[in-house]
Amino acid sequence: SRQHLCNVAAGWLWQRHTTCAGKLAFFRAHGSLRAKMPPKMMKLEIEEIDNDASVSMTWSIDPSGTMRHKGSGLKVSTDTGITFEGQEYRLSPEDIELDTSSHLGAGACGVVQKGVIKKTGVAVAVKTVKVDDKGKREQLLNEIRGLVQAEGCPHLVQWYAGFVSKRTNAVHVALEFMDLGSLADLKKRLHGQGVPPSHLACITSQIMKGLDHLHDRKLLHRDIKPENILHNRLGQVKLTDFGIAKDLDTTLAMAGTFVGTVTYMSPERCLGQDYSLASDIWSVGMVIYELATGKYPFADISTIPILFEHLCDKPEPRLDASFPPELCDFVAACLTRDVAKRQDTPHLCRHAFVGPCAGAQEELAALFASLA
């Protein structure tokens, strides 16, 4: 199942020169790999390796506990909260009433709980990030960079500010609260049924507009999946979790590394090629296929080697003729193995499948309400 694959990790990192045929031969020869893995593996996530001095990230911590990232100017302080690109995004611990009994989820960067801004009564999702190691600090930097780039886009989760706990030094980031959870939660409420195509068109349109906002700013999401797409009772759908998002220039300067959730990874990423804007598009196609059918495209595959073989060698997933042709074409445009032929966000935002959904947000809100 998809969940099983999400909880499996692989202990290899592709050499850049390894051929496609060589990798597939490796998979076929190692069908029993899963049985040899330690029992408590997390999802496929291999630590990024800096291979160029230009992308090496340097942190300093002064005696007061204030952390500074020399490359970006990010500052995290118990006194001033979060400062990025010269602007302060500050709340104090006293500004937010945190519901410690709630657990909204966990992302690439930390755990999330519900809270309320006391002065306004606005509900927020508070992400708590422990920055006690370099990897966590890098994810925080990526998260803040993504949130700043997302500001003003109605299809990306917004943020209010942040504060640092003087007791634990953990960083708390107050985010826009989406009251119905993720599209993974929506899928569960549908009990194996797909989202009706007319409603799926509105969902897809909002996803693509959010992704287009990121791609227009040369920012890759790199972990698009149902769990990282949120929805609310207003019929709004928004991308979230920028904890492993990366600036395109930085990404292209780095060696190919696995970061993200393997089950939504593009074929080129499985083969160790660089991230690109097109890699996000493949992930979108996988999500839309899953929402349309109620089933992950490779749900019957139980091992990562076989999954990778299907991604790299077998025909791409396609919807059958029972679905509207516009929806089938949209999925095919995303799930094209040849990166050069995979469509980009400007084209997909104008696709015939998502074009007619103007004004459909109210109907989508009604569907969400009926399932909540």
TrEMBL record:
Residues 98-354 form the Protein kinase domain. It comes from the Eukaryota. Its EC number is 2.7.12.2. It catalyses: L-threonyl-[protein] + ATP = O-phospho-L-threonyl-[protein] + ADP + H(+); L-tyrosyl-[protein] + ATP = O-phospho-L-tyrosyl-[protein] + ADP + H(+); L-seryl-[protein] + ATP = O-phospho-L-seryl-[protein] + ADP + H(+). InterPro entries: Kinase-like_dom_sf (IPR011009), Prot_kinase_dom (IPR000719). The keyword Cell cycle does not apply. Signal peptide: none annotated. Keywords: ATP-binding, Kinase, Nucleotide-binding, Transferase. One of its GO terms (molecular function) is ATP binding. It holds the Pfam family Pkinase. PROSITE patterns: PROTEIN_KINASE_DOM. Belongs to the protein kinase superfamily. STE Ser/Thr protein kinase family. MAP kinase kinase subfamily. This is mitogen-activated protein kinase kinase.
